[in-house]
Structures are given as structure tokens and as C-alpha cells.
TrEMBL record:
The keyword Manganese applies. SUPFAM superfamilies: Arginase/deacetylase (SSF52768). GO terms for biological process: putrescine biosynthetic process from arginine, via agmatine. PROSITE patterns: ARGINASE_1, ARGINASE_2. Its cofactor is Mn(2+). NCBIfam families: agmatinase. This is Agmatinase. Mn(2+) 1 binds at D149, H151, D153, D240, D242. Binds 2 manganese ions per subunit. One of its GO terms (molecular function) is metal ion binding.
Amino acid sequence: MTDHPTDLSAFSQPRYTEVPTFMRLPLATDWSAVDIGLIGVPYDGRVTNRPGARHGPRELRSQSSLTRAIHHVTKFNPFDAARIADLGDVRFERLFDGDGALDEIADFYARVRQAGIVPLSAGGDHTISLPILRGLVGEAGPVGLVHVDAHTDTWDTFQGSKYMHGTPFRRAVEEGLIDPRRTVQIGIRGPQNFPEGWDYSQASGMRVMFMEEVVERGIAATVAEARRVAGEGPTYLTFDIDSLDPAFAPGTGTPEIGGFTTREAQELLRGLAGLDLIGADLVEVSPPFDSAAITSTVGAGLMYEILCLLAGSLLRRRTG
């Protein structure tokens, strides 16, 4: 455990008080005292249909006030294992300059990497994973990817653009940010007008686990396959909320029926403990399409599960 545990003084206050931060954590201005940073990326400028994920970070912060410290299954306390803080949102000066906005995200995460901070990010549409990886991985070489989603997000172009929320992981392969042979895509489903994304993922060497395979094999076997593919090297985790069935997460831009339950999602994430995770994101929560904060509440709960994974990975790296 760290000698300087996370400041949890806000946990003793009523949940409806104070300025909302992720999980009621301190808002950090001094990054030198942070091991894991929670970050909002309020950007949805690359969606194909329903916008609204730009509001995701703010609502996820609000619902994450429900977070408590100790995991009820593992008894692990991530806040005792690492110094964790809210780093605020990526700030934009070129929001309507498409490539410029992505560059600003990448620049922010390059600073995060230089500070030695492990990021847990809240989107935002799934486009943000690409600039996050640009900043986080840089020229260090490709990393593994565990990608939980209803869609492969490996199209080539849409409406003339190579950069939108259906293309980030094709671009990430092309840019040498992820290793397709260490990439697993879990929960893929739903009809498409063209098989381009499925075909590219499989042809490039990614392991695509369609939802039907997940159901047939079960969560435990799915986890085992994900761990086999990712291996022991550095790995990034990305979780699209539309991997869940819309009965559990209606507030998202591209809902697909037949997805995970919340319990299955928890089991899946908990099974990834032990992977060498260098960062993670949870994306596509769209509050304007939500009902009674169902999706943002689920998203905040899953962010806690992911935080436990990141803190565990960090602790293992420290102790060897």
C-alpha cells in the first residue's frame, strides 16, 4: 500500500454537497502527488447519429458520488493502494477544428504520461480512445487492447472522414499504437450495412468475440480467452457502455439489443485482474438519452470496477 493514501475526507460528507468530482475525490492541481488520474473528455464531435456523450463526464461525476471505498467481493481498497484524484476535463481551444480537438486530447495525455499517471477516462464518444492512445503510448510501441463493445469500431471511413467513433481502432493499428494480435473485442453484435469492420478486425489478427460466442462459452471462458490474447504485456482497456443491453444502459448513441447485463459486465471486468493495465476509458454515456440516470449510474459503478483493476496493476508493478 502507498504511504500516502488518497484523501477521502469528502467521503464523510453528505453526497449532495461540494463541487462534484469523480467519486468525491480531490481535484488535483499538483499532478506530482497523483498515481491514478480520473479524467473527463467531454467530446462527441465524431458521432454518426445521436450526440450527447459530451455531457457524459459531468453526469458520471454526479452519479459517482455513490461510490464507496472497499470492494465487497475482493475487499480491495483502491484508494488505499494508490493516490487517486480527479484531474478535471481535457480543455479545448480548437473544439470545432476536428483534427485540432483530437490533437488537444493527445497533448493532454502526453502530459499525463510524462507525469507518470495512470489515466481512467470518461467520454465522450469512442473517437477519444485514439488520441488517448497517441498521448499515452506515443513511440513506445504497440500495446495490447481489451475492447468491450457492441461494435468493432474498425471501419475505414464514414462520410469521407477517417476519424470518427466507428474508426479509432483501425487507425490505432495503422499508427502502431495497438498490436492487433494482442487485441480482443468482446460482445460484438448487431446488424451492419457492410461487413467492413468485422472483416478488418479479423483479417488484421484481432480476436473478435461476437456476443453469441460469449453467451455460448460463458463469462469465465470469455475472460480466459481475453487474458490469453492480451498476454502479459502492457494493455489498455476500453469499455463502450453500449456493450450493455439497452435495458441496462439506454442512454447511449448506438444501442444494440442482446448485450451484457450489469452483473455480467462486473464479472467480466473483475476477471481481468492481473493484466498489466496502463490505462482505461469508459465511453459513450449520453445523458440526453438516459432515463432516471440509469446509464450514468451504471457507468459510474463500472468505473469503480475499472479503478480497482488499475490500482491493482499499479500495486503489482511497484512490488514486482
